[in-house]
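Hey, resending since the last one bounced:
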Amino acid sequence: MTDPKQPLQDQIKTLKDEYGAKLPERLDELDAAFADLPDDIRAVGAHQALETLYALSHKLNGSAGTFGFKAISDTAERLEARCRTLLDDADSAPADGRADIADLVAAVRDAARPDAG
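The structure tokens again:
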């Protein structure tokens, strides 16, 4: 007997596979946004770069979670929170705060590796 839920499960798997296939592009966007972040995150232009990183990590957090990529979602959530903190209190941001962001961007990419679980 055929499982009546199978067509829905197949659709969900197809959507998840399509999302997974687009992940490298999303990660490249995150890397490109990070590349625009000045070494001194208090410098002119840093705010816009942080806004972009925040928006991308926010989208990645939600979409990865929706499609069952929990490790990516959790790591993107940490990046999102760090960007938000830096945006909310830019005056007290450490000049070397870019290193924190670099670590989190790398962690998102690591979470997206096929063997990451």
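Helices lie at 6-35, 46-66, 70-88, 97-111.

Sorry for the duplicate.
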